[in-house]
UniProtKB/TrEMBL annotation, chains A, B:
Upper taxonomic lineage: Bacteria, Bacillati, Actinomycetota, Actinomycetes, Kitasatosporales
Keywords attached to this entry: DNA-binding
Domain HTH merR-type: 17-86
Keyword Mitochondrion: no
Organism: Streptomyces oryzae
InterPro entries: DNA-bd_dom_put_sf (IPR009061), MerR-type_HTH_dom (IPR000551), MerR_fam (IPR047057), TipA-like_antibiotic-bd (IPR036244), TipAS_dom (IPR012925)
Name of the protein this chain belongs to: MerR family transcriptional regulator
Length: 275, 275
DNA sequence: GCTTGACCCTCACGGTGCGTGAGGCAGGAG
DNA sequence: CTCCTGCCTCACGCACCGTGAGGGTCAAGC
């Protein structure tokens, strides 16, 4: 904090000039800024004391004040210099250019704010679609409450974060593509079970790989995580109902082909953890 | 411009990883950014070739992609690092904080834009008051067209610029104070002429000084400029009518006291120029 | 094997407008 | 003579890379 006006030097009326501290107090800028403007030659004091103190005369203060005014509307020091020193400078033109730049920056920031809104929504709700869109994409038996429940359960996991980040950049068409892929996979799964594909067979392992690829739309799935998922699908009533609705026993069969594939990759499915 | 995919290295499917150029093309960021993120440890490639080439694996790309997403909403690299590395980080909280910051910056830019509007108006119109305000402040015989005429005449001079800059930061009350000062000065001028004050007398010289001070509200006035002004007030029909309306012959008398004061300061009023 | 061209590497400066010390005079008060 | 405040001059730091400089690497074509 600058003390404006020491008892022995009343700072006002000293005809020879003001020191940096006095000038800074009067102009509402920092001493460092005055030093800087002096360094770059934008506003140098006309006088110095014998000891080297800067002394700003009335004319200097005049110029400083103009600098402050233009700085307040966001002009860069270079342009201020041009405006002050070049008597042919097009001041209104420079101001208008600046205003255009500012408008542009505002627009960018607004888009950025929109993006942030989407990200926040994605993290908090998990799905950015309207209820109608959700019904159209996920089918009529879709429960719009699913995302909220999922957030309740998984909101603090790294996987939820990745899911949320991706959701933020997905529109309805992309969701449609994903559900199509999932539906296609579910169908293939049921067909394979019907066809008598056995766990551990190349066909079954290929399906397991396909599942990981499809699932990667939500977040990357390690084999270990896939094992856990397979067991959850079998154990969780909701998920089990979904798979058993496709073919009776499909949830269990899926768990079996995942386990077999994991074993083939050196993972013990009975000790696999979510990582 | 990066060529994505040279004929001999199809850039897709190389299981061991992508080079910087390939990764940059895929992510839409520059190679330099990848280098930078590596330097600061935000995203380092898991692999290097024997020659030292960076190789980004699928997992690396995963992380890079998350970085890009968060960078697009304006998060700083430090905060991105926190969001990615600190599993206890409050992501929605960070996003909301960012949104608040963005809103703040938008607000500042809006005010800045308003300031620019005022400045532009000041440079182009000279007066920022409504016609009613002008009438209230300058009196009923004020011609609202004065500012436009003045800009026609003086718009390209340094003095007009200073006038415009100051106008931009003046409200109605300040204009009122200025017109009050001017009116007070005009009255004192008439009284002095009535009282028989003679050009060159201390009283007359004091009035000349007071005129310079009062006039400084518009722009700083040198003594030379004041001489020119005195002659213009006498010669210009509009200005002459104003002063002679106060006291007959006041325009001429004012020119005389200015001339005398100038002579006392070593200026020849007959060769004085506007500088 | 040599050239060519496209990539890749590691420094390292620069830009914007000062903030923030560090170390040391200058000048008045007690 | 000491103390305190204000002033001085360096000089680094910041956020995020852009932009060379100077020099290897890799695959292809001759």
């Amino acid at each position: 904090m600058q003390q404006s006006g020491s008892p022995h030097r009343p700072d006002a009326g000293d005809a020879d000039g003001l020191t940096v501290g006095q000038a800074s107090a009067r102009l509402g800028v920092t001493v460092r800024a005055l030093h800087h403007w002096d360094e770059i030659g934008l506003a140098r004091p006309s006088l110095r004391t014998a000891a080297g103190y800067r002394l700003y005369t009335a004319g200097d203060l005049e110029r400083l004040h103009r600098i402050v005014v233009y700085r307040e509307v966001g002009l860069g020091l270079d342009r201020i210099r041009a405006v002050l020193d070049d008597s042919t400078a097009d001041v209104p033109g420079a101001l208008r250019a600046q205003r255009a730049q500012v408008a542009e920056r505002i627009e960018r920031l607004r888009q950025l704010s929109d993006g942030l809104d989407r990200m926040i929504d994605a993290h908090e709700r998990g799905l950015l679609l309207t209820v109608e869109q959700q019904a159209a994409i996920f089918g009529p038996q879709w429960d719009p409450d699913w995302a909220a429940q999922a957030r309740q359960r998984y909101g603090d996991t790294a996987q939820w974060r990745q899911y949320a980040e991706r959701s933020a950049s997905r529109g309805p068409e992309e969701w449609q593509a994903i559900t199509d892929a999932v539906a296609g996979f579910d169908g293939a799964l049921g067909d394979a079970m019907d066809a008598g594909v056995t766990p551990g067979s190349p066909e079954a392992n290929q399906l397991v790989e396909r599942h990981r690829e499809v699932f990667a739309s939500y977040f990357p799935l390690t084999r270990q995580m896939q094992v856990c998922l397979g067991r959850m699908f079998e154990a969780d009533p909701g998920f089990a109902a979904h798979y058993d609705g496709i073919r009776t026993g499909l949830a269990t069969w899926f768990r079996q082909i995942v386990d077999a594939s994991a074993r083939a990759h050196g993972i013990d499915p009975d000790t696999a953890t979510w990582q």
